[in-house]
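job 3f2a | input accepted
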Amino acid sequence: MVDVPYRALPAARDAVRLASAAGIVLGAAVLTGCFPSPTPPAPTPTPSPSSVVVDEYASYYDELSPAVALVAPASMWGSFGPEDATQPAFWMDQSQPPGDLTVVLECVGAETLDLRFAEGDAPPSHTTPSLLEVNCPSTTITQVTTVGEGFAVEVDSHGQTGAFRVSVAPAG
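job 3f2a | predicted structure (172 res):
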């Protein structure tokens, strides 16, 4: 190995000094924030009061329905949704043994309702004939006899707003 004095390599010495100085300048630039910071995400717009759609029937049957559920444990209630966002309501109870059942349908708001009823584990479809076609407001009671275990119920307001409560209990 040949020992070369430091002063014999001025170009190398200058390169080391330049690299050291560049590292110090770069470190200072990072610490002082010379580089642009990331752009924060845009805030989520809050809906204006005019764009909020209110469902006036959202809790129409909520107060009395827990008491009805004690008498008819197979029950459902609610609304069809706000205007321009309505949909049919559907529910199944596969624990109900075969036999005679009393079906009670209460409704408000919508002009007419269809209640479709299917026994077993198959949900009713739009081709299932309506068990009840009612004009609201009303309370309608009907009897159904099932030969299989379980049933499914669909209530359809045909796009109208309103509220419903359906209960199904063993007859008698």
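job 3f2a | The two ends are 110 Å apart (CA to CA).
job 3f2a | closed
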